[in-house]
Design goal:
The chain is an all-alpha fold. It has a domain of 71 residues. The protein is built from five helices and no strands.
């Protein structure tokens, strides 16, 4: 998911910056797709940590405030999607055409 965005900047920066970008990428993956315990730890780091988050972002050559702002936007969109009520399913069944009619018109028979 995040590999495509990190590939664009993979060749830029020092080896240390690339390493810290990989740490941020892994944390984002855990936040979005990881097990619940990992997701919660990643979310705490990404949104609430005041010291280490800034250090990691700085080491990665990234602006921590800009990244956190963008992450907050992503999180807000996710919350909006969750608040939309599901449509109630109806008991209507699809009616399929009879097998005898399938050859007519489709194959020109």
């Amino acid at each position: 998911m995040f590999k495509s965005s990190t590939l664009q900047i993979a060749d830029k920066g020092t080896a240390e910056e690339r390493l810290w970008r990989a740490v941020i990428t892994k944390t984002l993956e855990e936040w979005m797709c990881g097990p619940l315990s990992f997701s919660r730890k990643a979310e705490q780091f990404l949104f609430e940590d005041k010291k280490d988050f800034k250090a990691v972002c700085s080491s990665a050559g990234m602006d921590p405030e800009r990244l956190r702002k963008r992450l907050n936007t992503i999180r807000a969109r996710g919350i909006q999607k969750e608040s939309i009520p599901f449509r109630v399913r109806t008991n209507k069944r699809m009616t399929l055409p009879q097998a005898a009619n399938w050859n007519h018109g489709v194959l020109g028979a």
